[in-house]
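tool=predict chain=A
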Amino acid sequence: MGSSTGKAIRLGRVLDPSDGRAAVVALDHGLHLGPVPGAIDVSATLNALTRAGADAFLVSPGLAQAFPSVFVGKGAPGLILRVDWTNRWRAADQLGSDEGRGRMIARAEDAARLGADAVLAYVFLGYEDPDAEARQVEDVAHLVWDCDRLGIGCILEPMPRGRRADHDAYRAEHIALAARIACELGADVLKTDYSGGADSFRQVTAASFRPVLIAGGPRVSTDREFLSMVAGAMAAGAQGVFIGRNLFQAPDPGSLMRAVRTMVHEGLGVDGALAQLGS
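tool=predict ok
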């Protein structure tokens, strides 16, 4: 009973209890990529997007330790702690590797000590070496059980990645496969890729029996393209977003944050969001 009560309280700081939805800012890029434009001055980014209404932030252990004041006080945003690391996102000129590998860098106990409401970890399906995939699933399973014991929310990020998947990573059937496996492992919430359209993404939400929030993905060229992705995901049954570069690298991140929040929580459409931006 105690652990389920703790989860309900903590996840209520991430997903709005009134509608079960969330507009989350992903700000963990530096952990995997080093300095990223738009998130160099992390304090300014955190504070600006908090004022603009971010429901929660996904951050690394280092950021959580360096900027605790953002998460303190009534009405403060939720804290989601990234507990794994991967080298797969770095290009060759950033000392990256082809397929990449990851490791856990924090435990559920560490997240509890930092005051996190939830943890988040990848589940990559598609490695050339099936044992590497199986070992990651084993690590994630241990994380799920530890979170359950401690009453901390566990958000999994299932993604078709690796040499067997990279050529078709955004295929709805593959995203749905990974999402369902993450649900079956015990995730409380999912962060998934977006398949590119509402019709195809319904396969993902239909396969998932936990709330689905989409990842923002690579930086897109226009506000309309980005906001159309948000609208399509919500129309297909998603319950929110994890947005990173498409938000903090925008010309006016605060205004875009407010528009996305209104889309997620009030059902504002793309044209209405663009009008709110003055675009």
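The chain has a mean pLDDT of 95. Residues 130-150 form the longest helix (21 residues).
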